[in-house]
Model the fold of this input.
Amino acid sequence: EAQVTQNPRYLITVTGKKLTVTCSQNMNHEYMSWYRQDPGLGLRQIYYSMNVEVTDKGDVPEGYKVSRKEKRNFPLILESPSPNQTSLYFCASSLKASGNYGYTFGSGTRLTVV
Amino acid sequence: KQEVTQIPAALSVPEGENLVLNCSFTDSAIYNLQWFRQDPGKGLTSLLLIQSSQREQTSGRLNASLDKSSGRSTLYIAASQPGDSATYLCAGTDSWGKLQFGAGTQVVVTP
Done:
């Protein structure tokens, strides 16, 4: 089944403890991105990747890192999480960034930082 | 910067009525427009993708139109059912592949 898989689904952590949220797609998509969703603010892009080894900042990149060493994986790294990073996170992928391709989203990761 | 607005923010209808959800965007230079469904605390499920050269897409009881000149898209859901209760999000894609989302329309269909 074609899908975007995120892990974990739920995570509670303490301030300052590094964590990684994994994202993997099995559709050979070039483009991958991370979004966070917050009440009243909607979905905002954190980082995106046009292809392997090509990443760039989205609208709200502060406090996050990403890497794209393989085409299928795009992990989101929080080096020192803070409570304001408590949110619902989504990974998404598309065949290519440009052109008329739709996006497939993962099931989401609900992160709570205490 | 692309801004996407969805009206109304919330909608409650009795079962069987048709739903009309509106999405407007400020920049007509979008590549495509995609409608998603989101159940509470869940992920986004793609409903329809309207490519830039298309005017509408249909899937079952769902029909979405796109008018780039006026900056509008409309999602129609025919003969609504309680299972249609969810938040519906529209998102336009720019040339960099970035999705710009609206805030969503929360739909409740009462039996």
